[in-house]
Amino acid sequence: MCVDINQKTYVLDHVFYEFEMYLITYHELNVHSFVINQLIKNLLIESHQIHLRNLLDFFYSVRVTVDCIIVDDILKNHTSLPKNREFWKTKDIINQSITHLTFKRIPPEYRIPPTEGYDLTWKTQKSVHEIFPIIRGKIRSFFRKLCDENIADTQYKQNIQDSLKNVDILLRINSLKALLSR
Q1: 124-167, pLDDT tens digit by residue?
Q2: Do 31 and 103 contact (CB within 8 A), yes or no?
């Protein structure tokens, strides 16, 4: 849990970076994918997948390590998304898509023995498109709750309000609002 205002401000800045990278890479891959070369496209895909995995852990309140930042560290009145079968399936697909040295990344026709019916690229794209509205909704909800005047814990409320007075944080919020409106 964040202990002082400087730590909270830094944490918010770090979380906003994850939001920005996720939203920007998703947008670029879906709007400009036909004009970018394969190297840039690969960079965007991998960046997107890494930030998506980070946000899944953040919003599903999964502490991968003891010092991982999760939504519960920032918002006390937040409901985490359920860790159901779909969550673990999506997380597994995302992990596979950014783990390069695996047999699943080899096209099925080149595997020994050849396998049928498994296309990591298609599964990843489907998973990414299915999860986008959920993650975008969680980001919007995060902002609504972050700025909520009805946060019960007064000390906590004061710390958040102090963080929101930071000029850099305000700029990040405005930038994110523009990204969310796309």
Answers
A1: 777 777 888 888 888 888 877 776 655 545 555 666 667 667 66
A2: no
Is residue 150 a contact partner of residue 76, using CB atoms and an 8 Å limit? no
Q: Report how far apart, in Å, the C-alpha atoms of 128 and of each of 16, 64, 134, 179 are.
A: 20, 21, 10, 17
Which uninterrupted H or E stretch holds 132? Answer: helix 120-146
Contact (CB, 8 A) for 135 and 179: no
Q: What is the Cα–Cα distance from 29 to 40, expressed in whole angstroms?
A: 10
Q: Write out pLDDT tens, residues 45-96.
A: 889 889 999 998 888 877 888 888 888 888 777 777 777 787 777 888 788 7
Taking the alpha carbons at both ends of the chain, their separation in whole angstroms is 32
What tokens were used for 31? 């709007």
What predicted TM-score, i.e. pTM, was given to this entire model?
0.75
Q: Which of 133, 146, 136 is nearest to 173 (CA)?
A: 146
Residue 21 · residue 47 · CB < 8 Å: yes
Q: Which two tokens stand for residue 57?
A: 């852990």
Dihedral (C-alpha) 154, 157, 163, 167: value to the nearest 10 degrees? -110
Say how far apart CA 54 and CA 56 lie, in whole Å.
5
Task: For residues 73 and 50, give the distance between their C-alpha atoms in angstroms, rounded to a whole number.
Answer: 21
